[in-house]
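Exercise 7. Given the encoded structure of a 116-residue chain, write a plausible sequence.
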């Protein structure tokens, strides 16, 4: 996809920004990590809806990605909210993209499970 300064700071118009690409990588990596760990624990997810939002801030000397917020809503049979939150937090820590961002970008997580 084309990348432009305008898509970064004003409107996308069918283009993207480096921050959106990082957010997409973070969301997909987290989803794969969480899905794998839940499946290995015997509670495969029926669905995972994961979003990541990277925030670009003006900083001294230019701009920086200040944070990445992960949001996940899942349908998982046989798992309560506390167990799901633990699994999601572990996936956040184990995700390779989270590892690449750690120490430079604040990473937050909002995890919700639909109990069935």
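Solution.
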């Amino acid at each position: 996809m084309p990348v432009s300064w305008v898509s970064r700071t004003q409107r996308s118009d069918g283009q993207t920004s480096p921050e959106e690409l990082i957010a997409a990588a973070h969301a997909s990596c987290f989803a794969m990590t969480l899905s794998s760990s839940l499946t290995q624990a015997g509670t495969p997810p029926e669905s995972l809806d994961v979003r990541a939002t990277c925030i670009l801030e003006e900083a001294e000397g230019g701009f920086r990605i200040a944070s990445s917020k992960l949001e996940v809503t899942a349908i998982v049979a046989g798992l309560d909210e506390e167990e799901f939150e633990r699994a999601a937090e572990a996936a956040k820590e184990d995700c390779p993209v989270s590892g690449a961002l750690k120490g430079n970008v604040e990473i937050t997580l909002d995890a919700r499970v639909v109990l069935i």
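Remark. The mean pLDDT is 91. Students should compare their own answers with the one above.
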